[in-house]
Amino acid sequence: MAGFVIVVEDEVEQVYVDRTWRGRGVAERLLQHAEAVIGQGGHRTAWLAVVAGNTRARRFYARLGWQDRGPFTYQAQTATGTVPIPAHRYEREVGNRREPPHPSLAAREHHERNIMTDIESTPQTTFQPQSLVRRRWPTLVGLGFAALVAFDLVSGVELAPVLAASAAVYLGAAALRRPAAAWPLFFATIVIITAARLADDRLEPTWVILAGAVALAVYGLLGGAARPGYGLPLQTLALLGFGAAAGAALVVNPELGAYLVAAGLLGHAAWDAYHHRTNRVVVRSMAEFCLALDTALAVAIVLVTVL
To answer: In sequence order, which ranges of the chain are alpha helices (DSSP H)?
Structure first.
């Protein structure tokens, strides 16, 4: 059996896909069938509960159009009663997904058999794992970008703007409450750094980036982005720390400044790893990209400074 789905009234209570069938679209087809059954039952909205820490499942449902309606306590049924479980409630409109009205029981059984037959008849050899490039492109791009930046590196202090930009991107995404905004913000910081370099460093890009981050923080506060705590409030504290390291690197002696930037980048790499695991604030591709970039640049700074 490829998998099954359990529907109770308007709730998709359980979706199960056998391990050997995962990644082949089985879960999507089971959910489509569940939505049709719920719609046929006269319900306009289907809902399901996802354990709060199951970020992979939450991304999956969001990708299929389910809306996160916020946290709640799900009362899971057990043999001895109910168990409260912290979860998020996801909903999806199904009023327009009904199957033909009032089909006979035989027709419904035939329809369900057809769904399972179609799934089970799919040759297992058709599944192809994603290539390394597709699965880890942010890491590869981050390492490539690091190589480009460090190619003619003379002093680690030159990368103080990169440290400031790393923190500013996270803060900006939190202020805008749009994780996908991390990539445009990153490219904006690259434009600022490049323009400053072309202007023969008459304007230090570190201060420009930090000033822009402060402006974004104010915008976010005015726009009501003070919650959740891991968003703008925490990213503001991070900006203060990483920004202080970047600013201090510009005013101390070059060797100490280089080590400050390297330490800041390694610290931000840990920050990237945490946000990649929790899938918060920025999209995971950005967190993975920054993790590779920050780590590689920190190593390059240490090597240049020591050698």
So the answer is: 26-40, 55-63, 105-120, 132-135, 137-150, 160-176, 182-198, 205-222, 232-251, 254-278, 284-306
In sign, the C-alpha dihedral spanning 18, 21, 22, 27 is: negative
Handedness of CA 156, 158, 160, 166 (dihedral sign): negative
Note the pLDDT tens digit of each residue in 178-208. 998 999 999 999 999 988 888 765 688 999 9
For the stretch 124-160, pLDDT in tens is 434 444 566 777 899 999 999 999 998 888 998 999 9
How deeply is 56 buried, as exposed, middle or buried, from its count of CB atoms within 10 A (0-12, 13-18, 19+)?
exposed
- Which sequence spans correspond to the domains of the chain? 3-126, 132-306
Say which DSSP state 131 is in.
P
Q: What is the DSSP letter of 129?
A: P
Torsion, CA 280, CA 285, CA 287, CA 290, rounded to 10: -160
Q: Which two tokens stand for residue 235?
A: 């990213």
What's the rounded Cα separation, in Å, for the pair 143 and 122?
Answer: 38
Per-residue pLDDT at 196:
86
Asked whether the beta carbons of 260 and 248 are under 8 A apart, the reply is yes
What architecture is domain 3-126?
3-Layer(aba) Sandwich (3.40)
Q: Are 262 and 160 in contact (CB under 8 A)?
A: no
Tens-digit pLDDT profile for residues 223-261:
988 888 889 999 999 999 999 999 999 999 999 999 999
CB atoms within 10 A of CB 179: 20
Burial class (CB in 10 A: 0-12, 13-18, 19+), 1: exposed
Report CA-CA distances (Å) from 64 to 3, 27, 29, 91: 18, 10, 11, 11
Helix (H) or strand (E) holding 86: strand 81-93
- pTM (2 d.p.): 0.60
The amino acid at residue 147 is A
Among 245, 241, 223, 238, smallest CA distance to 280 is for 238
